[in-house]
Design brief:
A: mainly alpha; B: six-stranded mixed beta sheet; globular
């Protein structure tokens, strides 16, 4: 019972603190936290595919970009309210994910990583494509305006946007927790751990992987929409290949197959570049690299793994895949008759 | 019908009713029927027109020296290989045309020669995956925790609790399977297959890697499970004593063809079986 309740209490405490921060921090810091929530959702989406289902994607920046552009185009060109863009982004990205996942998942492991990487390279250029320029604004991108707090709430724009994003994030995390902790999440991990055995348990691998891909793209697309609304601007170069790699870094640093890991990973990728910049204006990239390597050395299973080691054993399904393999079974000796 | 503490599902009762009807109609319908099965790998014919049948609730042992084709046959029945000719009919379905993921739903459970567990997951979770095909709830139902999800989870967990008990896995239920001893891992695999309520259980060398006492226990266990869950079991096994002890029927293969089919005593005394085994005695152990 306690093991059931503790994560819930911790989750509640985190949400209470996160809400309180809206009234304690400066607008700029609130903007940063808004981005943390958006990236946490994106990393959670990536985790569903890469962590749970075992399919490496180096191209989730593409889905983030599509989600961002759908929101920006709807707001700038069609006067759709910001909150109504999220479900549209979700549906469009899920559709893209399904369409891309269907053929892509026939590619195994590293080949899938390359296929998704190609997607990450292609999407920013497609966004500059002339025929789409009326909508996408071409290289210039699209500027959108920041929403005001509704119902005359005494909140400034940054506070409101942060709380709105946080609320969406909490809902998405709860839904993900339900899904990943149950029958479907188990099936995803089963497919990752041993495909043939998973099939023998009646799991349709192709269908499960394609749906996971769609779900993963959907989460990342919603994150993109939230990010676009917070940044108030989308342009092709905001979504270069580096974004995909950054999300992947966040996933690994946070710790795969862990909801809290997605949040840690997002904190890492939002704040580390600033931190590296403060240490050395000349070579922030080098500082970033050194910190990253040091971190992976000290916490090979990410923040979530580190936390587990410090706090003690947690729910087994949150454990990262075991690296140890059992001793090889002795060969069967045939009895002679 | 015997009903153990693991309750039988409605569809299983329906199916057994159907089997009884077939019997009363004067026709014995085998649960699994393999007919003229041919499998080739390049120029090598691994199986050359093998036929046999397994009745419901029957334990059938499949034996043969190395390279006789028994693993190929096992892999055809479990959907890993597609035969070039012949058919495999299970409870009215031709398995050769079905996707592998459908087999569990028809009532075919299996274990693997080298134990194929989901290594990052606990014993409990591994067993629950075995109940996957009994559930219908999808992504949306699970994300929203609709009532159907809780209902399915309760059913699966009740069945799991019984199996943990039955297979003596209670003490390790929350352990990650990767670090468990081989014999324990085999029992987890068995539990994972049984929770899916199979009518036919395919066991690939269940005695492999077990010591003498464990093999004796396994023989008792298989008999008990067969009885309790009304199972038919198809057993591919090197361990001759185990096969002869638990099987009601033994099928012997050599070089891709059937050389004997009958009770353990009949097969044991069949000249071709004796010759096939004695001629191969020197390379025992290489599976």
């Amino acid at each position: 019972m306690r093991a059931e309740r503790n994560p819930l209490l911790i989750g509640l405490a985190v949400v209470v603190v996160a809400v309180a921060l809206a009234f304690l921090l400066s607008n700029y810091h609130l903007f940063q936290l808004t981005m943390v929530v958006a990236y946490a959702i994106a990393i959670l989406g990536l985790d569903m595919l890469t962590g749970y289902t075992g399919q490496i994607s180096l191209g989730h920046g593409a889905f983030y970009a599509v989600g961002a552009y759908v929101a920006a185009i709807l707001m700038a060109n069609f006067n759709v309210p910001y909150w109504a863009t999220l479900p549209v982004s979700a549906v469009v990205c899920a559709g893209f994910g399904f369409a891309f996942g269907f053929p892509a998942l026939r590619l195994g492991g590293l080949y899938l990583a390359l296929a998704t990487f190609a997607l990450a390279i292609a999407v920013p250029q497609l966004l500059k494509y002339k025929l789409l320029e009326d909508w996408t604004g071409g290289v210039q991108g699209i500027v959108i305006s920041k929403p005001d707090a509704p119902f005359g709430l005494p909140l400034n724009q940054d506070q409101w946007l942060y709380l709105f994003t946080l609320a969406v994030g909490v809902v998405l995390f709860v839904l993900a927790r339900n899904l990943l902790g149950g029958r479907i999440g188990r099936a995803m991990r089963a497919v990752r751990d041993h495909g043939v055995a998973a099939e023998a348990m009646g799991i349709d691998i192709a269908l499960l992987k394609t749906r996971s891909f769609a779900l993963s793209a959907m989460y990342t697309g919603i994150a993109g929409a939230l990010g676009a609304i917070a940044v108030q601007f989308v342009a092709p170069d905001s979504f270069a290949v580096f974004l995909s790699i950054t999300l992947f870094v966040g996933l690994v640093v946070g710790g795969i197959t862990s909801l809290s890991g997605a949040v840690f990973g997002a904190i890492f990728i939002v704040f580390l570049p600033n931190f590296a910049d403060q240490i050395s204006k000349a070579a922030p990239g080098a500082i970033y690299g050194v910190i990253l390597i040091a971190f992976l050395y000290l916490a090979p299973k990410g923040f979530a793994g580190l936390l587990r080691r410090l706090v003690g054993p947690r729910a087994p399904h949150l454990a990262a895949p075991a690296s140890s393999t059992p001793a090889a079974p002795p060969r069967p000796a045939r009895a002679k008759n | 019908m015997r009903n153990g503490s693991v309750s039988l599902p409605a569809e299983k009762r329906d199916w057994e009713q159907g089997a009884r009807d077939a019997r009363t109609a004067g026709e014995v319908v085998p649960l699994l029927r393999v007919e003229d099965l041919v499998v080739r790998f390049g120029g090598v014919t691994a199986l050359n027109g093998v036929s046999f049948a397994v009745a419901e609730r029957q334990i059938c042992g499949l034996i043969g020296p190395n390279g006789s084709g028994k693993t190929t046959l096992f892999n055809c029945i479990s959907g890993i290989y597609r035969p070039h000719a012949g058919e495999i009919v299970f409870a009215g379905h031709n398995l050769a045309r079905l996707p592998r993921a459908r087999l569990a739903g028809l009532g075919i459970g299996r274990t693997f020669q080298n134990v194929a567990l989901f290594d990052s997951m606990s014993v409990r979770e591994n067993i629950l995956v075995g109940a996957h095909h009994l559930g219908r709830s999808g992504f949306i139902a699970n994300a929203l925790r609709l009532p159907v999800v809780a209902r399915e989870a309760r059913a699966a967990e009740a069945a799991m609790a019984d199996l943990l008990d039955l297979l003596d896995l209670g003490a390790v239920a929350d352990r990650v399977v990767a670090g468990l001893p081989f014999g324990t891992r085999k029992r987890v695999e068995l539990a994972r297959a049984l929770i899916g309520r199979p009518k036919l259980l395919l066991l690939d060398e269940p005695a492999g890697g077990l010591n003498h006492d464990e093999v004796a226990n396994l023989a008792d266990l298989l008999g008990m499970l067969q009885n309790r869950f009304a199972l038919a079991i198809l057993l591919v096994e090197h361990h001759m004593n185990l096969v002869m002890r638990v099987s009601a029927k033994v099928v012997a293969l050599e070089l891709g063809a059937k050389i004997a089919d009958g009770t353990p005593d009949e097969v044991r005394n069949e000249k071709r079986v004796i010759r096939a085994y004695l001629g191969e005695a020197s390379d025992a152990g290489a599976a």
